[in-house]
Write a structure and sequence with these properties.
Radius of gyration: 19 Å
Order of helices and strands: HEEHHEEHEEEEEEHHHHH
Largest sheet: 6 strands, mixed
Number of strands: 10
Number of helices: 9
Oligomer: single chain
Shape: globular
Length: 283
């Protein structure tokens, strides 16, 4: 993550500086909570926590709440619609997964002591009660992986508390393993090649693709019925949006397969659904 020079100290000024460095940002109200940016999605719907029954897609023109509202667009950040939020803002937050980062949120002294023994050193940022350890790389966000430790990356936001100190290192397997609370029943992902590019790339920033993959993972994870159909429709949507320009990689496909297998789909089912989606789109 490129660390911009923070010249202005107000919340909107800090947000604009971060956005200029391609870091998606949003304002937070009191209690470190996001604002509800429209009446239809206030506080619980679009961009809500994945485990909330009300979380999910909305009919707004754009994602409007929580991590999904994070943006690098200065026109949005300075728009009249966002002005009241900045006047009431208590903090600035950013979407770590949108800039391919993972924040290990250590909430107390015991958690910090554990991290110093168990995790590779990386960039650290002091917080009110503990520290944020920031690694380069994105993953699934999970709260409470152990006492006083949360993981914030995709589909999550973290408070901006300054650039921190130390050299940022690559996201290690020991941190990824924290997201697995129970022995995993997910079998290895079948080898499915990424589509060959050739079309015009519509993705202006890596954050656009990252957001699409993260939302696809969420859609699969939240499926409570018709899992087969949900997986196929999600694969179809991802391929339709990202499959022709060459941005989609084997790593992105693996993430979708892992999400599907966590819902009970076998590797063969995943491969068949992917192949059927490609056929339906003429790929």
């Amino acid at each position: 993550m490129t660390q911009p020079t923070l010249i202005r100290r107000d919340h909107l000024g800090i947000a604009l500086d971060l956005a200029a460095g391609n870091v998606p940002v949003l304002p937070l109200r009191a209690g470190k909570l996001p604002f509800g940016n429209c009446a239809a999605c206030r506080y619980t719907a679009c961009g809500g926590r994945p485990n909330m029954k009300t979380a999910g897609p909305c009919q707004c023109p754009r994602p409007c709440h929580g991590w999904a509202a994070a943006t690098t667009d200065p026109a949005v950040l300075q728009s009249p619609a966002w002005a009241p939020m900045w006047r009431q803002a208590h903090a600035v937050a950013y979407h770590p997964g949108g800039v391919r980062l993972t924040v290990v949120d250590l909430d107390n002294a015991d958690a910090i002591a554990w991290a110093r023994q168990a995790l590779p050193a990386t960039r650290t940022v002091p917080t009110t009660r503990g520290e944020h350890w920031i690694y380069r790389g994105s993953m699934r966000s999970v709260n409470g992986v152990r006492e006083g430790v949360d993981l914030k990356s995709t589909m999550a936001y973290a408070r901006w508390l300054g650039p921190g100190t130390g050299t940022m290192t690559e996201l290690p397997d020991v941190v990824r393993a924290l997201a697995v609370k129970e022995p995993s029943t997910v079998r290895p992902v079948s080898a499915v090649p990424a589509p060959v590019g050739g079309g015009e790339c519509r993705h202006r920033t890596p954050a656009y693709l990252e957001r699409g993959i993260a939302m696809a993972e969420q859609r699969i994870t939240e499926a409570s019925s018709a899992v087969h159909a949900t997986v196929y429709r999600t694969f179809l949507a991802v391929l339709s949006a990202h499959g022709r320009c060459g941005c989609l990689t084997d790593t992105h496909i693996a993430r979708l397969f892992v999400a599907a297998q966590a819902k009970g789909e076998g590797p063969r089912h995943c491969a068949d659904a992917w192949a059927n989606a490609r056929t339906a789109l003429g790929m």
